Every structure is written in C-alpha cells, then in structure tokens.
C-alpha cells in the first residue's frame, strides 16, 4: 500500500476519475483510511497515504466520496497529526453545500486557531470557500469569536481580510457582524507592539481591498489610527504603518490629513508621511484637500 500510494501521489499529471477508480479498486478507501488511522505514527507511511488521499479528493469522483466518510473528516479535524488535520481541512473545502458542515465548522475553526501553519492555511481556505454560499455565511459568522492566543487572534484577523475581499455583500455581513471590532481592539491595545503591528499589517491589506475605504471609514478605526499617529510615545514603526493605512483611507477627512502633515517635521517619519500624502493626492477629493 505504501509503495502504491507513493507512486499515485507522485504522478506528475492530473489524475482522472478513471485512474482514481482504478486505484480504489485495488485499495478501497476504507482500507486506506483505516491504515492511516492505525499507522499514523509512522512518518513515511503517513506522508504517502495523506499525499495519496489529497490527490484522490481533488478529483470529481474523489470529492463525491467524501460525504460517505464524514466521520473520518470529523476525526481528522481533531487528530494529533498536523498532516491529517490539514488533509481533513482540504476535504472540507470541497463540500461547500453539504449540510453536515454545520457540525464540522467549529472543528474547522479549531484547526485555524491551534493548527500549524499549513493546517491554518488549509482551514482558512476552506472557510473562505464556505463563505461563498448563502448557507456558509450563516454558519460562519455566529461562530467566529475572539480568542486569547495572540497567534489565534492574528489568524482570525487574517481570515476577516480574506472574507472581506470575496464580495461587497460579504463585506457588508462582516461589518454587520461587528468583526471589524476585532481590528479596533488590537489597534487600540498598544501594549503588545508585535501584535499591534501584525494587526496593522493586516488592516493595510484590508484597506487595499475594493471595498476597504467604504466600510473602514464607517468604523472607529480612523480615529484609532489618528491616535496612533499622534502618540509620540509609540514606536515609530507603528506610527509609520498607521500613516500608510490612513493614506489609503483619508481622501476626504481633514483631521487625519492634518495629523499626518504634522509628522513631516519628524525626520524618521517624513518620507512615509510624504508617501501617504501622495496617495491621498491621487484621488480628486484628496487633491482638493
């Protein structure tokens, strides 16, 4: 099984449904899943089976089999093995319309919050795909909340950025769900510089999205950014990033513009302030200001 799985996974091309059926005819899916659960402690064996299953689930035929093995997906999302959890997250991403996702989603969030980077990325992609359906939106937002771990909070913020960029309607749901309040809390909390800087970096990405300015200006983030810019006791890196974000948002807000202008006298931040003013001037309203 190990050799066959490795050979199947290393095939350079895209597997067809026919090739998947042929492989599963020799090694039925229950046999592979059972072997994975019983021998997951053997690294090479686990790698071969996980890679093989991932190639299987990518095909239309393989995806059609997943609903029959949702019990495995649930167990996989809670597995100790990061590779198995990552595989389970990817399997979920193919099941956007499956009603069982209501049960699976909390486990998917757990993978986002406490999995390693590949697991978190896979779960984030699955949640983003899930958000594209009306049923998915109703599942996601009531369950998304703050968590104590700084890594978990950053991952939640990164997920918000991804969800925000999917569509204007989804951005509206994000705002109505008060998820931008998570950004406000992190920007307002300057006790943890690295956490605040990470939040500002993600906020910068959010400001770049097609609907960024429209929705962010409705929140208190603009005032919070202004406070950061004007607080000379903060690290210049934080103030510079706040200036750049404000430069994207402040095309019609004179208060923020004046705050940035004051930083022109600071040699450390002068260049960043000029760049921000240049971005404001790119718009007609900004040029008038």
UniProtKB/TrEMBL annotation:
InterPro entries: ARM-like (IPR011989), ARM-type_fold (IPR016024), PSMD5 (IPR019538)
Pfam family, one: Proteasom_PSMB
SUPFAM superfamilies recorded: ARM repeat (SSF48371)
GO (cellular component) term, any one: cytosol
One record GO biological process: proteasome assembly
UniProt cross-references to Gene3D superfamilies, sorted A to Z: Leucine-rich Repeat Variant
Protein name: ARM repeat superfamily protein
Organism field: Chloranthus japonicus
Taxon lineage: Eukaryota, Viridiplantae, Streptophyta, Embryophyta, Tracheophyta
